[in-house]
Write a structure and sequence with these properties.
The protein is of the alpha+beta class. It has three domains: 111 residues, no CATH class; 212 residues, Aminoglycoside 3'-phosphotransferase, Chain: A, domain 2, CATH 3.90.1200; 168 residues, P-loop containing nucleotide triphosphate hydrolases (Rossmann fold), CATH 3.40.50.300. The chain is 48% helix and 17% strand. The strands form five sheets. It has a six-stranded antiparallel beta sheet, with helices on both faces. The longest helix is centred in the middle third of the chain and has 27 residues. The mean pLDDT is 92.
Length: 511
């Protein structure tokens, strides 16, 4: 079979669903993709899997489509139980008429879903500028929770699985020379072949440690909906367990890649940092460039395959152009970058965390710098959620030393993975500043230290307006400890009483 080849005539099932949608009434819509035809009417959606074969997907027989429909409902109910209503057959009755869920012979199967507002899909929200930083924070939290509960599958994943993905991507991309130039595919193959051996041991070790789980598998913006006011994952990869049971960071990488492709590196960086703050999973960072590249290459081949099926030449040309953009992105993710360590210190309320978050997307390779925040590190050490108040013992001198020590170890881990790091803490003690500088020297990374200066009253105003923040600093604490800076200050002082954008531009101009 050729990729995209139709294996069975589904004309009767499609005509039946069209009439079913008409009877349902209300606004109707039909959506066709490379893998499915979806009818929407009233409050319901019916999803018919196309009788088609691709190297990465096989819906060529009725039995395979039935199994895929059952799996889609079961797996998506992990994250979207209110949306997935069930799997039903389209049956041919004794009189020859078709029915949904009847007693006759099944001629096809559909996933029945609760209809939702298409404008609340995250890809559409991104297109019209409706996504917010709060959405990204909530989404990262949701993904972290989902991964924590996902079934562990140590028999899958690892270096061999990633090698198969890389080789399959290259083979399929090379099979479409009309869309992709040979040189571009060869460049990606060369960089991928260099990256994989560097990560092989890590990937196998993470599999053994339980980081390969039954994930979503197709976690891009089109498969996320703002459902009842909360980001909700749906339409997971159901047709191949070997593809869906992956390293959790590979699962996350699809979202990050999609955001980068849409020019939202700020949101990609925010989502990554929030996820890592929730999970503490820094160990897989050396594989992230390869993960991102694989995800972009997958989108390249899917877009190219979809373009070949389009009857509208303009649509086909647009999809082919998008496919080439994805291939370029896949190659760019593997470009080497020299990491650096940036220390941002200052009194509580000085705005150092806000400055760090704003600067991070613009530093290092995609998806930007890792932000290590002492407030978050301390809460992870004491098994507290970021929004919870710390116990009294967490504020002791010993706890502070432990927190700064862990922050340095985390910085070394990320630097070794090739990531630029921003270490955000008070750093009032010159010994703390010296220890961070020593960590950069040990890692062979350039270091830049910045001390954020802000008047006390401005800091009090900022702290009094905080809500749901990891910092436990209060206005009373600031008044009791107006200045903690000690010893000579060798770091560059930045006046942050102005706008964040101005301060960030000054900081970036000095690194």
């Amino acid at each position: 079979m050729k990729p995209g080849e139709i294996t069975q005539d589904q004309g009767a099932a499609i005509a039946f669903l069209g009439k079913l949608a008409e009877r349902e009434g209300g606004e109707r819509e039909r959506i066709d993709t490379h893998a499915a035809t979806v009818f929407l009417a009233g409050d319901t959606a019916w999803k018919l899997k196309r009788a088609v074969w691709f190297p990465f997907l096989d819906f060529s027989s009725l039995e395979k489509r039935h199994a895929a429909c059952e799996a889609e409902v079961r797996l998506n109910r992990r994250t979207a139980p209110d949306i997935y209503l069930g799997c039903q057959p389209i049956t041919r009755q004794a009189d020859g008429a078709l029915a949904l869920g009847g007693n006759g012979e099944a001629i096809d199967w559909v996933v029945v879903m609760r209809r939702f507002d298409q404008d609340l899909l995250f890809d559409r929200m991104a297109e019209r500028g409706a996504l917010s930083a709060d959405h990204m924070v909530q989404l990262a939290d949701k993904i972290a929770e989902f991964h924590a509960a996902a079934e562990r599958r140590p028999e899958l994943g690892g270096a061999d699985a990633v090698r198969w993905i890389v080789d399959d991507n290259i083979e399929e991309l090379a099979s479409m020379p009309g869309t992709f130039g040979k040189a571009a595919v060869k460049a990606l193959q060369h960089l991928s072949d260099e990256a994989l051996p560097r990560c092989a041991g890590l990937l196998d070790g993470r599999r053994e440690a339980g980081f390969v789980r039954h994930c979503h598998g197709d976690l891009h913006l089109r498969n996320i909906i703002l459902w009842q006011g909360r980001p909700t994952l749906f339409d997971c990869l159901e047709f191949d367990e070997a593809l869906a049971c992956t390293d959790v960071l590979y699962d996350l990488a699809f979202l990050l890649m999609d955001l980068e492709h849409r020019g939202r590196s700020d949101f990609a960086n925010l989502a990554l940092n929030r996820y890592l703050q929730r999970t503490g999973d820094l160990g897989g960072l050396p594989a992230m460039p390869l993960f991102l590249s694989c995800r972009a290459a997958i989108r390249a081949k899917v877009e190219a395959s979809g373009a070949a099926m389009q009857q509208d030449a303009a649509v086909a040309d647009g999809m082919a152009a998008a496919a080439r953009d994805y291939l370029s992105l896949a190659t760019a993710f593997l470009a080497p970058h020299t990491p650096m360590l940036i220390g941002i210190g200052g009194e509580s309320g000085s705005g150092k965390s806000t400055i760090a978050a704003a600067a991070a997307p613009r530093l290092g390779g995609a998806p930007g710098a890792l932000v290590l925040r002492s407030d978050v590190t301390r809460k992870r050490l004491f098994d507290c959620r970021m929004e919870d108040s710390l116990p009294r013992q967490a504020c002791s001198r010993e706890a502070t030393a432990q927190t700064y020590g862990r922050l340095i170890e985390d910085a070394k881990t990320a630097l070794a993975a090739g990531m630029t790091v921003i270490a955000d803490a008070v750093y009032a003690d010159p010994a703390e500043r010296a220890a961070l500088e020593a960590a950069a020297r040990e890692a062979g990374a350039p270091f830049h230290g910045f001390w954020i200066d802000v008047p006390l009253e401005t800091r009090i105003e900022r702290v009094s307006g905080r809500r749901h923040d990891a910092s436990d600093a209060t206005v009373d604490f600031l008044r009791a400890h107006p200045a903690r800076e000690k010893g000579p200050m060798g770091w560059t002082r930045l006046d942050a009483s102005g706008t964040v954008d101005v301060v960030v531009e000054r900081l970036l101009g000095m690194v």
